[in-house]
Every structure is written in structure tokens, then in C-alpha cells.
Amino acid sequence: MSDGRLQAIGLCRYYHRGPQTVKAVDEVDLTIAPGEFLGIVGASGSGKSTLLNLLAGLDTPTAGEIRYENTPLRALSRQELASYRAHKVGMIFQSFNLIQHHTALKNVEMALYFNDTPHRERRCLAEKTLTRLGLGDRMHHRPADLSGGEQQRVAIARALVKEPEILFADEPTGNLDHDNTGQIAELLTDLHRRGLTVVMVTHDLELARQCTSRIVNMHYGRLQSENEPPQPRKASS
Ligand SMILES: Nc1ncnc2c1ncn2[C@@H]1O[C@H](COP(=O)(O)OP(=O)(O)O)[C@@H](O)[C@H]1O
Ligand SMILES: [Mg+2]
Most Cβ neighbours (<10 Å): which of 33, 112, 155, 159? Predict the structure, then answer.
């Protein structure tokens, strides 16, 4: 079945710190429908990044499973899992994660090294994607010579150049000022309107309300829908 649906079922990711077990993601059930713009909000340390990394196939659950188009990710071979990461999903990070000594163009091109794109097409696709994101005249700049907003757009281009089906964004505006936050929010909204499934983690509830079609709340590793009353919680790291 090719329906683009991504599901977490009883998903858990525990970390062990000495005698202590941190339940970063705890019994999470979640279905992400193709074409939706899901917001995941929650305090720092509530497990948002851990959940996103699991959904993107970058980390392995302690228990439970993730299904993409009804196939459990754990049933995939190493190669198939690599293909899931390289073709189906794109990830953008709060800290951009760009390679500092490469130009914007090279950073975007590199995303295509892992997904069988012929060498001669990589540059052309990277140029097209950067131009589409308004960076046509910044392609040959290194990250240090770009503003925060521009660096985040390069990071978005790097995720989009693979033409993923699902775009994961982990606090994509966390390091940006108000104007750049607005620009990135508009960009993600536009991508969603064109049919991309977007999952955005943010601690900014206002932003999530502005652009997403559904919001879920993470609280100590567990998911609640937005309408459930928040539980009182201790301050966390
Ligand atoms: N690699 C790790 N080793 C140990 N604990 C971790 C690791 N990554 C995250 N954690 C812990 O898991 C919990 C959730 O972290 P995280 O998913 O980064 O939360 P968020 O993204 O919501 O801030 C936190 O208590 C964090 O300290
Ligand atoms: Mg995080």
C-alpha cells in the first residue's frame, strides 16, 4: 500500500544514565496523515527531538514501532532504511547543521550523494532548489557569510532537494529573530500547501497555532492532544 502514512505505535525510547532510566519517549501512539502539517509542542526535555529522530529513522526505538505505509521500519534491511532516510524524509535542525567549509551549493548538493542522483544532476537540482528559496545569489557563500535566516533556508533547501514526502523540522526557528521566523513559517506553510507533509517541533505554541493543521503536546515523553489541560510540571533543563 502506498499511502504515505507514518505511524508510531507504543513507541518508546529510554536512555540509561547509571541507575536511572530516562523515558524520553514513552508509549507514544501517533498517526501522521499524508499532507498534514503537524505541530509537536512541549517544554525543553519533553522528548520532542527524540521522537522526531525516531520518526525520521535516525534512531532506533527501545520498544514499540514505527510504520511507514504500513511497513515497520524495523523490518527494513539496512539498505532499505538508508533509502527511507535518503528519499522519503527530510530533516531540518534548529542549529542548521551546515558544513562550515563548504558553500551553500555544496551543502545542498551533498544531500544527493546518498540517494543515487547521478553526479551531473546534483548541481543542477541544488541550484534550482536554492533559487526557489530565494538564495540564487548566495549559492557560493559559505555559511559564516550568510545570515541566520539564510543559513536556515540553505538547510531547508538541503532537506527539500531530495524531494522528500515528509519534512521534519526540529525547532526550525529556534535560532532566528522575529522577521526570519515569519519567513520560515511562511515557507513551511507554502510547502505544506503544495502537498508536502510537514512535522514541526517547536516550543512556540503561537507559531504552531499559526501554521499547523494539528497540534500535539509532549509532556515527559508522552503525547497529549492540544485540548487536554497541561499538567503542572517542574522546571527542566
Ligand atoms: N543521547 C542521550 N542520552 C541520554 N539522555 C538523553 C539523550 N538524548 C536525550 N536525552 C534525554 O531525553 C529527554 C528528552 O530529550 P529531547 O528529546 O532532546 O527533548 P526536547 O527535544 O523536547 O528538548 C531529556 O531528558 C534528555 O536529557
Ligand atoms: Mg529538542
Answer: 155
Q: Is the pLDDT of residue 234 over 60?
A: no
From 11, 13, 14, 15, give the residue whose CB has the most ligand 1 atoms within 8 Å, as the site to mutate: 15
The pLDDT tens digits for 218-230 are: 999 999 875 544 4
Please tell me whether residue 146 adopts helix, strand or coil conformation: coil
For ligand 2, the distance from its centroid to the CA atom of residue 41, given in whole angstroms, is: 10
Angle at the Cα of 109 from the Cα atoms of 104 and 114, rounded to 5 degrees: 140
* Domain extents in the chain: 6-225
Condensed to tens digits (0 to 9), the pLDDT of residues 80-103 reads: 999 999 899 999 988 889 999 999
Task: Classify 121 as helix, strand or coil.
Answer: helix
pTM for the whole structure: 0.90
Query: pLDDT digits over 49-59, tens only?
Result: 999 999 999 99
Q: Is 24 in the pocket of ligand 1 (CB under 6 A)?
A: yes
CB 31 within 8 Å of CB 63: no
Q: Locate 90 and state its grid cell.
A: 527530510
Q: Looking at the domain covering 6-225, what would its CATH class be? A: alpha beta
64 lines ligand 1 (CB under 6 A): no
